Amino acid sequence: MELPNAALVLVVAAAAMLSVAVAYDPLDPNGNITIKWDVLSWTPDGYVATVTINNFQTYRQIMAPGWTVGWTWAKREVIWSMVGAQATEQGDCSKFKANLPHSCKRTPAVVDLLPGVPYNQQIANCCRGGVVSAYGQDPSGAVSSFQVSVGQAGTTNRTVKVPKNFTLLGPGPGYTCGPAKVVPSTVFLTADHRRKTQALMTWNVTCTYSQHLASKYPTCCVSFSSFYNDTIVPCARCACGCEHKTCARSERDSKRLMSASGKSARPVSALRGHVNRQSAAPLLQCTTHMCPVRVHWHVKLNYHDYWRAKVTVTNFNYRTNYTGWTLVAQHPNLDNITEVFSFDYKPVVSYGSINDTALFYGMKFFNDQLVEAGPYGNVQSEVLMRKDASTFTFRQGWAFPRKIYFNGDECRMPPPDSYPYLPNSAPASLVSSASVVVAVAFLVLLMA
Ligand SMILES: *[C@@H]1O[C@H](CO)[C@@H](O)[C@H](O)[C@H]1NC(C)=O
Ligand SMILES: *[C@@H]1O[C@H](CO)[C@@H](O)[C@H](O)[C@H]1NC(C)=O
Ligand SMILES: *[C@@H]1O[C@H](CO)[C@@H](O)[C@H](O)[C@H]1NC(C)=O
Ligand SMILES: *[C@@H]1O[C@H](CO)[C@@H](O)[C@H](O)[C@H]1NC(C)=O
Ligand SMILES: *[C@@H]1O[C@H](CO)[C@@H](O)[C@H](O)[C@H]1NC(C)=O
Ligand SMILES: *[C@@H]1O[C@H](CO)[C@@H](O)[C@H](O)[C@H]1NC(C)=O
Ligand SMILES: *[C@@H]1O[C@H](CO)[C@@H](O)[C@H](O)[C@H]1NC(C)=O
Ligand SMILES: *[C@@H]1O[C@H](CO)[C@@H](O)[C@H](O)[C@H]1NC(C)=O
Prior knowledge:
Layout: H1 6-18, E1 33-43, E2 46-55, E3 68-72, E4 78-83, E5 85-87, E6 109-112, E7 143-151, E8 164-169, E9 175-177, E10 181-183, E11 187-189, E12 196-198, E13 201-209, H2 211-214, E14 220-226, E15 229-233, E16 247-248, H3 251-261, H4 274-279, E17 284-285, E18 293-302, E19 306-315, E20 322-323, E21 326-330, E22 337-341, E23 344-348, E24 357-361, E25 369-370, E26 378-386, E27 403-406, E28 409-410, H5 433-447
Parallel strand pairs: 14-18, 16-17
Antiparallel strand pairs: 1-2, 1-13, 2-7, 3-6, 3-8, 4-7, 5-6, 9-13, 10-13, 11-12, 14-15, 18-19, 19-26, 20-25, 21-24, 21-27, 22-26, 23-24, 27-28
């Protein structure tokens, strides 16, 4: 029998230790979200600014119910009006007589508008319900903007005070934002590219994601199987935490639980506050792993120069359709992908030459939505890789991925010592010649 690969165990353990509490993702070291304010004009008591949220993360999108951006005003500023977004609360505007501001909160929370608002309430890159694509998947969808008219503020670049304590919620916590920094003013090119204009003042905020801040447990798990061993290695038990979780035993049970809680999975109004976020809490199908998502990697076929893995992503969450989902896999042979069936694919090149990470996502209008748990709640693909003659082997779990991320969160791997063994593939010295003959015959049969 084969022993688990000690080196792999070490790598997995080291990776687990390194990723604790550090907002650093080794597969996406430069990934961040910036919030940029460009002051475009001064008003009698303040300014009008365009706020642009850029998602520079390679594979972590902001999915429904979208972003919420918050900050603390430095002085007594108010928001007179907004275009393309809205503050979730007006707050106490009782000091104002005739014209009431849009929001008087000292710590406003702003959300995007939902699609379909009238054109006069829109600006470019607004009104997508706060959904922002990952940059590596769709650069043109990785930006979101709104305009804000601020009163009781400074009216020159020396008297304006930049807001403090920026916060960014994706569908949940996880992001930490640095201080706003005044940066060189943004230069804009007019639509006909014949004239440049410039913001009167610009400040930037950088926010980074930490999975450990987002949730105590992983949100997905990985299971394995192979053509050369009947064992299916399931997701680790309670991979996503089992405490205080209710789950549904069947689809009918899920409907009962959803109507009992009286909450809809969909936002009921354009004003999406924390109440609606709560209802987006997962309602899971009962499993031993209790994860909303499982990624199964099956080593399917062995050819002379190629091999093939089948990847299946299954949704166990009755409350969520994962629209625009992403899957990231790290495996040393992913630098030699020959063909990917029914998923789109891009290499993730994080450090120069190392090219062992791939970003997979669904094809538009075909499988870019991983629908809620149930008979249709899965997507699958096959990946054909050219064997790298110097490293290729089925031994010691080599054919299984080193890391898997779903929607930007790292998934829990099965315990390293549980990977399917290649039958009778122990070190040559321990294997009788008879069993070598049997094993070779077996492989030849499989390759045929
Ligand atoms: C944010 O991401 C961009 C794009 O990857 C990068 O150029 C920039 O240095 C990052 N900023 C910080 C503060 O890490
Ligand atoms: C910003 O947040 C920090 C810590 O949460 C707090 O100590 C500080 O008072 C806040 N600043 C303002 C202006 O609210
Ligand atoms: C403020 O505006 C003055 C001109 O009015 C300009 O010279 C200066 O660079 C600006 N400062 C900043 C930080 O934008
Ligand atoms: C500010 O953010 C923009 C992206 O919105 C980025 O292009 C620019 O480099 C940033 N500036 C600084 C000084 O970080
Ligand atoms: C998921 O999408 C399908 C149609 O694409 C819809 O019927 C279903 O209600 C959606 N489920 C959730 C939880 O939003
Ligand atoms: C990475 O691998 C892909 C094929 O999987 C290839 O298209 C791409 O050019 C490679 N990039 C580098 C920098 O080697
Ligand atoms: C796999 O790709 C690497 C570069 O990405 C290349 O050097 C190597 O020759 C390839 N191996 C095979 C077997 O094609
Ligand atoms: C298949 O792999 C499992 C480990 O996951 C191992 O216990 C079992 O002995 C293997 N079966 C064969 C036929 O080698």
